[in-house]
Every structure is written in structure tokens, then in C-alpha cells.
Design brief:
13 helices
Amino acid sequence: MSTSVSTAGRSGLVYLVGAGMLWGTGGLLGTLLHRATGLSPVSVATCRLAVGGLLLVALLATRRRPWPRNPLAWRRVGAVAVLAAVFQAAYFGAVVASSVSLATLITIGMSPVVVAVLEHLTGGYAVDRCRAVTIGIALCGLALLVGDPSGGVSVGGLVAGAALAVAAAAAFAAVTVINAVPVPGLDAMTTTGLGFTGGALLLAPLAATSGLAFDPTVRSVVLVLVLGLVPTAVAYTLYFRGLSNAGPGIAAVLALLEPLTGAALAAVVLGERLTTSGLAGAALLVVALLLAAIPSRSTARIPDTATGRRRSRD
């Protein structure tokens, strides 16, 4: 029994690491798509959700996978759709109001903190000293990696950007916590496909104000497809699949692989160089990621225990 639980925890960890690394390609692909098409950030986000969701829906249809039939499953899909739309709109709103660095710092940095608070309030995982230290190291590393978040932005812009980034962090944390509990008859791929398609529909009216049309060249079409496939369809399916085994707290910390991978790709592909403080921040993020993985073996049994308690009540 303990061996199977340990194996499940390790597989969940692998899924989450894969998701974080694939998310790191999103910033690069989104930047290249913006340069190739002139689409606004919120339009890029809408295309990302729509393409990623529809690709998965098409795959599910070709495999003749049964669609969810119980109301609980559809409520979960609806929640993912709303939260995905809120996350994308709030994050890119923070980018426009302030800067990419501030939006990234607060959104990704606050997510593990919000997850910890939600778990504490819902009676999930305890926030022990090791987890608190891990989150602290991750926040310091992220701050050093991102650098100065102000960038000459006005005070009003900073306040608005920070508020929107906190909303984005809350939406991502909520997605993480609710999807850590499986729903009968609903797998990770179906959740991602239907949820993100619904999120794109909710976000489309906002994106339409800045324009969704672009010149469909080979380069732009390939970029849209890859953006929808790699850091969206595949990455989120892996993330949702690993959540139930590894736990939301570990998942939120491992999401920090996104800015770490993004910084490495920006240095290689776009020629951006990390400063000394950026390198120090990257090192701290690596330490935080390792610390997040170490206690996963001891906490992997908690979801099973909770499930057992729920079953015993039934």
C-alpha cells in the first residue's frame, strides 16, 4: 500500500515538473506571436485558451471518450472556465496597468501563499515550518529573478497592477485547490479541454475590443498552434493530473519552474542576459523547488487518508 502511494506521489511530481517547464515556453511563444501578429496580450491569451481547449476537445472526440454526465463534473468544468478567464484577464490587465515584472512577481509569487491559506481554511494540509521556509525562499528567489518591478510606472499603475495580479494569483490558487480533489467521471484532459474552451468563450468579448484578427501566415499559424498545444493543452493537463497525487501546496511551488524556464529560454532565444541578482534568484528558486519535492513523500498519504475518511462517512 505504501509503495503504491509513494509511486503515485512521484508520478504526480513528474507531471507537475513537466507542466512547470512547459509553462516556461508560454512567455517566449506569446512574445513571438505578439511580434508576428500585433495581437494584444489579452487577445493572445484568448487564442491560447481557445486553441488549447479545442485541440483537446477534438482529441477527445476522435477517441470517442464519453462526456461528463453528472452535475458535479459540469460544475467543475464551469469553475475551471470562469477561473481560467479571470486568471488570464487579470494577469494581462496587470501587465498593461503596470509591467510584466510586477505582474509576474505578484501573480506567481502570491499563488503558493494563497494556496497555503486556502488549505488552512479548508482543513487541508498543515502549513508547517518547512513549507513556510520553502515559500519564503521561493518569494526571495522570484523577486531577485524578476528584478525591479516598478520600471517607471506611476503609483496608480502600480496599485492597479498589484490588485489585478493578486486577483490572478487568487484565481490560479483556486484552480489548484479545487482540482486537487478528483471528480468521478472527469479526467484531467476533459477538464482542461472543456474548461479552457469555455474560458476562451468568456474572454472573447474582452479580447474583441482590441481585435482578434491577424494575418494568417505560416509563422503566425504555427505559433498559435504551438502556444495552444505545448504550454496550454499539454501543460495544464499534466498539472491537473499531478495535483491529486502531489497536493496543491507542492504544485503551487513547482509552478515557479515557469519563470525559471522562461528566463533560461529568453537568454538562449532572445539574447536576454540574467544579471548577478537574477542568477542568485534562479539559484534560490532551484533550492525552493528541491525543498518542495523533499516533503512530498511524507505528505503524499494525506489525500488518501482524507478520501478514506470521506468514504467511511458515506
